Amino acid sequence: MKGEERDLAYLAKLLGGRGLLGPGDDAAVLGAARGRGVRVATMDPVVEGRHFLPSDSPRDLGQKLVGRNFSDLAAMAALPEEVLVSFVFGPGWTYRRRCALYRAVDRQVRRFGGRWVGGDVAGIQGPSVFSLTALGRCPGRPIPRDGLRPGDVLHVTGPLGGAPSTRRHLRVEPRLDLAQKLSQRFPLHAMIDLSDGLALDLPRMLRASSARLGQPCLGAELFEGALPLHPSARRSPLARGAMGALAAALGDGEDFELCLGLSARASKRLEGDGSFSRILRRPIGRVCPEPGLFLLREDGTRIRLREEGYLHELP
């Protein structure tokens, strides 16, 4: 364990493990919302040079800043309510360009039913950093990431791979409505937002679920022929290796799709529900008691996968 993962593990211990259902989930559960479900909160920044380039448009930055936070809410089956936004502007941000970013953020927040209620503005002689705190509400039960069980079937809401190589990583479309529909129709065991890559986020689900069950780490098998590849996955630098576009689907990150786990019986119902997309209806894998992440090849062979994806480098 290193870098970001090591810090997150320390913070989980410092802050008391699960608490009300966090830290360690896509959003922290704050408690009941006076008969209106459960309140949750999340916060994510976008950093110049890491999540965006100085040449990216304010419109795209606004969509990414709001979308990546609302995607965390979607992973908990929550809907956005209020947001707070912090803007730390580096050199080159004129008043006109700053106002364009403010409008873009406000437009995206309103588009998904939220309300921008406050924040702060500052300047710095360095890279810009924009952070958004989103408060939301789960109409029903919050869906955690630690609810997987042996034998659960895995599904994903959309195609994977290639987002960092295109503008798609900026134009985030959080699966808020889809998460509501899924959580209302099926007893979901666990769900996570795929921001760092399936081969990194899925093991996080497995470790969290194992800790909750109090047993050795669960594992998962992914079905090679069932993993949905985005057309841009073939343009990813990761696609140049032996596994081709499949490596991009596993490790690129920035897809902002949802990965969910549910029982084999519920999965069969989902497979037969024509109101969902073909990609979502098709199982991509299953949870197994053997630790590790594996790829079940179409020829029947099984190979172990490395946990790879996007991790922030920290000293």
What is the C-level CATH assignment of the largest domain? Alpha Beta
Strand order of the largest sheet: 7-9-6-10-8-11-12
Rg, Cα atoms, Å: 19 Å
Low-pLDDT stretches are none
Short description:
The chain is of the alpha+beta class. The protein contains 8 helices and 12 strands.
Overview of the molecule:
This protein has about 325 residues and is an alpha+beta fold. It folds into two domains: about 5-140, PurM-like, N-terminal domain (60s Ribosomal Protein L30, Chain: A, 2-Layer Sandwich), CATH 3.30.1330.10; about 155-305, Phosphoribosyl-aminoimidazole Synthetase, Chain A, domain 2 (Alpha-Beta Complex). Helices cover about 30% and strands about 25% of the residues. It contains eight helices and twelve strands. It has helices spanning about 5-15, 60-75, 95-110, 175-185, 200-215, 245-250, 265-270, 280, and strands at about 30, 40-45, 80-90, 115-125, 130-140, 155, 190-195, 220-225, 255-260, 285-290, 290-295, 300-305. The strands form two sheets. A seven-stranded mixed beta sheet has the order 7-9-6-10-8-11-12, with helices on both faces. Helix 2 (about 60-75) runs parallel beside helix 3 and helix 2 (about 60-75) runs parallel beside helix 4. The protein is globular and about 60 Å long.
